[in-house]
Amino acid sequence: HSGDATVVLPPQRTYLETVRRAKLITRAIIKALNVTGPFNIQFLAKDNAIKVIECNLRASRSFPFVSKATGYNFIDLAIRAMLQKNVRGDYHTLDLDYVAVKSPQFSFSRIKGADPLSYVEMASTGEVACFGDSFGEALLKSMLGVGLRLPKKNILVSLGKEENKVKLLPVLLQLADLRRYTLFATEHTADFLAANGVACEKVYKIHTKQRPNVADLFEKQGVDLIINIPARPLAREQADGFIIRRKAVDLNIPLITNRQLAEAFLNALAELKPSDLKIKSWREYVAG
Fold this sequence. Notes:
alpha/beta
């Protein structure tokens, strides 16, 4: 669900042509529907091909976030526009000298036996937005804001299908080279990483009855972060993957289940130390 998504402004990996087309399409739709005031429009974009998912005549939860991130009070502007006031102006909403990230907060620990995965139904119960001089800094701050702790030593990865392993290989190589963390991986992930030069320790899934397994890791060495990417993202797995994810929630271990978020978080972890996270007021960022 889009409400569970991690939101970044300005966009970091969106083509300028995609942004331009999104603007043109938005103007055309709003003109055709004769809309004045807040609205929520969502796009799906890949390689500059854009599709409109939905357009709703309401303000979304991103509305106040965008206002804070850009420094423009869009709520005030929307009300004035609906009162037929002139709100034309030269608004700079993408050319920002900082990055803002909004991270969702979940309450899976309060729901016994729930699989802590995101689906089409919204599961987040809150969110925290933070600013940084870089994407990595803003991301780490926002994830710390929703309760995630930065790992000190042990990281467990279980990456599911081959595509996840290939996509996360560069950042895992970078992380292993830093020698700040000890990487543990379930058997297929460990075999792939070892074959590609990533130093890691293999732990077996619990159902294999082989040792050391995931349960041994939890009991004897402990884990500071779990990255568990399901092989079938939309299937509710009731096997080893579920056990790992549920253990993470029950033991209050930070858990990431999305590949793109895992890649961004690990990149930030490799680039920054806790001491690099600056404490600055909102006005210091927005006022420049």
